[in-house]
């Protein structure tokens, strides 16, 4: 399968001079078409920063990012045009509170892709129906549960038919009883063949949806492989230590 995403020797440094922090330190990552790569690691390990760099929300300090073979970190490329081919869903939903769910979902198709109102709304309503939100299309975000808001945010990213989907801890802001409905939707996307990179702290979910799990530690990919290998029989001591801490945290 061809590579949809390629990160080569990716560095991201925040700060200046002596007060710099290296958040990403030489990341190499290739994601094939239809592959689901799950990023795990402690807070501050670089998962969210990596996703933000891929979506060009953060400028990389060094290295390159290729989308379907094109270097999108080249300053001569139209970043907005490539960003339209990448869907990103944040942990905090980021829905516009003054717009209805339908208007949130159709905003980009109408304003950016210049689709007619009728065409944009038809596509949006079909997707909202698929995720069980058809009856919420005319509601405002504050009338929805957290799980419903997150599903609406996912539909907003999907409506533009992205080449690549990025998910940044999409369940971390949800109550435990709402987590399942969002994870089920992401699992459906996997069955549809969507290419995805997912940062999560839900190890059960990682095991279920990942083709490959990457453990990030202090800005590097310390270990990667099939979920059954990384999660059940990790090679690196740091990976084992991280997973043991998760198990201990779940103990009553």
Give the gist of this structure.
The protein is an alpha/beta fold. The protein has helices at 47-54, 79-83, 101-111, 117-130, 146-158, 176-191, 203-209, 227-232, 237-250, and strands at 3-14, 21-32, 36-40, 62-67, 70-71, 86-89, 164-168, 196-199, 212-217, 220-225. Helices cover 37% and strands 25% of the residues.
CATH class: Alpha Beta
Task: Describe the sheet with the most strands.
Answer: 6 strands, mixed
Number of DSSP E strands:
10
So what's the overall shape?
globular
Oligomer: single chain
Give the name of the CATH superfamily: P-loop containing nucleotide triphosphate hydrolases
Catalytic activity: a polar amino acid(out) + ATP + H2O = a polar amino acid(in) + ADP + phosphate + H(+)
InterPro entries: AAA+_ATPase, ABC_ATPase_HisP-typ, ABC_transporter-like_ATP-bd, ABC_transporter-like_CS, MetN_ABC_transporter-like, P-loop_NTPase
EC number: 7.4.2.1
Family: Belongs to the ABC transporter superfamily.
């Amino acid at each position: 399968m061809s590579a949809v995403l390629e990160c080569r020797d990716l560095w991201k440094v925040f700060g200046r001079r002596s007060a710099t922090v290296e958040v990403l330190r030489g990341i190499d990552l290739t994601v094939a078409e239809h592959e689901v790569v799950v990023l795990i690691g402690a807070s501050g390990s670089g998962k969210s920063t990596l996703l933000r760099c891929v979506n060009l929300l953060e400028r990389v300090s060094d290295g390159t990012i290729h989308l379907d073979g094109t270097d999108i970190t080249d300053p001569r490329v139209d970043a907005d045009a490539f960003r339209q081919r990448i869907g990103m869903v944040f942990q905090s939903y980021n829905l516009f509170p003054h717009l209805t769910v339908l208007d949130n979902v159709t905003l980009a198709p109408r304003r950016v892709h210049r689709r007619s109102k009728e065409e944009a709304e038809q596509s949006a309503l079909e997707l909202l129906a698929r995720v069980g939100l058809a009856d919420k299309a005319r509601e405002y975000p504050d009338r929805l549960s957290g799980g419903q808001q997150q599903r609406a945010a996912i539909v907003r990213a999907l409506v533009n038919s992205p080449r690549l989907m990025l998910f940044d801890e999409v369940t971390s802001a949800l109550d435990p009883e709402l987590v399942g409905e969002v994870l089920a939707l992401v699992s459906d996307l996997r069955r549809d063949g969507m290419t995805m990179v997912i940062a999560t702290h839900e190890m059960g979910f990682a095991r279920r949806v990942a083709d490959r799990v990457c453990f990030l530690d202090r800005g590097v990919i310390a270990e990667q492989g099939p979920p059954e290998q990384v999660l059940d029989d990790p090679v690196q001591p740091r990976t084992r230590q991280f997973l043991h801490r998760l198990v201990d945290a779940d103990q009553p």
